[in-house]
Design a protein that fits this description.
Keywords: Transferase. GO terms for molecular function: holo-[acyl-carrier-protein] synthase activity; magnesium ion binding. Belongs to the P-Pant transferase superfamily. Gsp/Sfp/HetI/AcpT family. It contains four helices and eleven strands. By secondary structure, it is of the alpha+beta class. The longest helix is centred in the N-terminal third of the chain and has 22 residues. The model has no long low-confidence stretch (mean pLDDT 92).
């Protein structure tokens, strides 16, 4: 069963893959070609379920039929609904990991990420952490808390990248640790956005990034 939560600027829906029924009939021509290119049966099933989850929830939100929904794509490959769906234009983003799908729908540009928590050495993450971020993480005494905050930071960056459609290179995106609020705050670039952390299960960390004033 889908789990739904509504916030001021967006709503999020997540679901275990076992509860989603893939439907080849929902795919348009481009999606069918993409589906056939997958060599792995698991990848094909994942794609079918992801598209079914996405289109069925968009259809319910917008009052459309799932089969009528066909996506356009930005130059970076992010799907969106073109102006032919006006006035049903909305922003959405989908993420998947460990048999869970996470979807956000909003009237504003949005990005989501969901990741499976696992133990990791901080130095292994140096390719995506700024020196200050790494220093802040290493200052957290308890390993469990450090891992949780590492994934909150990682998912924040991924959600921001997806919300902005890769407008900013990873090396330009940095966060600062707020001891007062015990959370990560976007430090650079200066973009007005809202982050919302989601604990899907004890092993899954999710994050939503919704751009403001766009």
């Amino acid at each position: 069963m889908n789990q739904r939560f509504t916030y001021e600027d967006f709503k999020v829906i997540y679901c275990h893959a076992s509860q989603i029924e893939g439907n080849y009939e929902l795919l348009d021509g481009e999606e069918r070609s993409r589906y056939e290119r997958y060599l792995s049966k698991d990848k094909k099933e994942e794609f079918l379920k992801g598209r079914a989850f996405l289109k069925n929830n968009l259809a319910e939100s917008l009052g459309l039929s799932a089969k009528s929904i066909s996506f356009s794509y930005t130059k970076n490959g992010k799907p969106y609904l073109s102006e032919i769906y006006s006035p049903h234009i909305c922003h959405f983003n989908l993420s998947h990991t460990k048999d869970y799908f996470l979807l956000a729908i909003s009237t504003k540009p949005i990005g989501v990420d969901i990741e499976t928590l696992r133990s990791v050495e901080m130095d292994e993450m140096i390719h995506f952490l700024s020196p200050q971020e790494l220093k802040s993480l290493k200052s957290i005494s308890y390993e469990k808390d450090r891992i949780i905050q590492l994934y909150k930071l990682f998912t924040s960056k991924e959600a921001f990248i997806k919300a902005t459609d890769k407008k900013y290179p990873l090396e330009q995106i940095s966060f600062k640790w707020s001891k007062l609020n015990t959370q990560w705050e976007l430090d650079s670039p200066q973009v007005d956005c809202q982050f919302h952390s989601l604990r899907i299960t004890d092993e899954l960390e999710g994050m939503v990034c919704c751009l403001q004033n766009t």
